User: What shape does this take?
Amino acid sequence: MILESIRSPADVKALGEEQLPRLCQELREFLVQNVSQTGGHLASNLGAVELTVAIHRVFDTEKDRLVFDVGHQCYVHKALTGRQELFSTLRQFGGLSGFPKPYESVHDAFIAGHASNSVSVALGMARARTLQKEDYSVLALIGDGALTGGLAYEGLNNAGASREPLIVILNDNGMSINPNVGAMPSHLSRLRSKPAYYHFKKWYRSLFGKRPMESRLYRFNHRVKTSLKKTLWPGSTLFEDMGFTYLGPVDGHDLPRLCDVLEWAKELNGPVVVHVNTVKGKGYSFAEQNPGKFHGISPFDPETGLLKKPGGESFSSVFGKTLADCAAEDSRVCAITAAMADGTGLTGFAREFPERFFDVAIAEGHGVSMAAGLASQGMLPVFAVYSTFLQRGYDMLIHDVALERLHVVLGVDRAGLVGADGETHHGCFDPLFLCTIPGFTVLCPASFAELRSMLRRALFQLDGPVAVRYPRGGEGAFRADTSDKPAACLREGGDVTLAGYGVMVNNLLAAADLLAKDGIRAEVVKLNQIAPLDHETVCGCLGGRDIILVLEDSFGPGCVGQRLAAILAEHGRAPKKLILKNLGKTFAPEGSISQLEHSFGLDAAAVAAAVREAMGYGK
Ligand SMILES: Cc1ncc(C[n+]2csc(CCOP(=O)(O)OP(=O)(O)O)c2C)c(N)n1
Assistant: This one.
């Protein structure tokens, strides 16, 4: 096995060229083997095997800075940078992260998780390098999907004009999670069909020997050719128009050619885009045939490609079905996704109502503003978006939606802890940032039945901006529908009051059961609406209690518990003791949701223990 002998990128460089195809083959087997056990991002990594090997042949990632965009395609890089043994712990609590983490390795130049920032980060690094008179290469590795995000253009616009040596490697597989959408993918596909342009450039360069940039004539001709081409030939690439030298398209599975083009890019010493064509899922037939399914996949059988535990009904699928029902009833209802149609449960809606379904690509800010435009003209737009990615649209929520009091509905999916994707993906900010925007109503279903009712209420009964937030996965023990009131008492009890919202009420009910065994009678209050918080309701269901515990899987500062406490204090109804259980000020890592709840003291046992302590039990 060649792969087993690779402890660091120096070992990759030491291999003979003839050994490289075997290494790539072993890397693919390694990926399928490991990801089938742990789950993870498979298809993107299979497609980036040769590209990653080529990067490590040409660059030195201990010194050179490689910035991954999204970062889900970093597995091969991790395997080649001394982390092979850790793959059995991939995406698990305390294990190897599925995304680049500088704390894990010096080879991980920067964190990643959210799309489209790599060019900006890389440009910052390149500028720092120049100011500090250092000498190293800076690379941004970005997919064609991530290239649909507006931030990528802000980076390119600035980087192209900067003249800073910086290499943007565009890994173009024509796919986001699903097929990529919009005008940019069409531009790229036109470029893909013109490999002759690259071959001509390469032939011309070869006339000047091994190091053409050292030839003054080549450098002069390069400049003249570039400006003549810009003026006379309108068919130049967007990248060239933005100030980059464009190299490509290159077959991303042809290792010698990849090494060659990367060497060339390095030599050019300016802003360069290297356009690489890859096949998502390459080398594993199930993933090649169905790259969307194998983009991020749970454990599966490598022989059949079938999931070990087929997914059942989830909040996302219930949301999608309910929205489709609503769209059938009312022709104003539209659905928007930012490249997450499958994840947000909108595939059925897209099939049934293609003309009212909008995939805006990885462009959450644009999604929010477009929803505002639709609402301003009398449509009923629903933007289904993961909580963590909605952070990208914060200003648009305030400026374009809330200021105009527009009736935009947000389906805030993956609210709360999400598990294996870790700190970049947990949906732990939306209860803070949505609730503080004036005019926003935020509804929190805890069961499928409540999600159905609340989505309908958001669409057909409420006005202004409304968010319905729900978690990843399925419902827990709580299955009822209490959505007809802003808060519901789920269990009576006079010793302590446990309050929460969303699926955290399951933990509260379980904690109440545990406390009952000690003879402690816990009242359980469920908040169906966390914004606006009506003072009368809050004082009615929580006022004058001795001990109140508020449980949330969101961050501490500015949490709902603090807002409840302020209201109760304002009305002289503060409890004698208030216990706020949340994530505090810590970013939660990857791990199963139950492990994370346990480690942050948010599970039933921890809630019960906190109550016992507050009541002086066991002292
Ligand atoms: C801001 C943001 N929105 C959505 C996502 C979810 N997401 C993760 S990967 C991905 C597709 C990326 O496609 P591409 O960059 O082409 O990489 P590929 O997987 O095709 O290699 C999406 C939409 C994200 N990570 N960040």
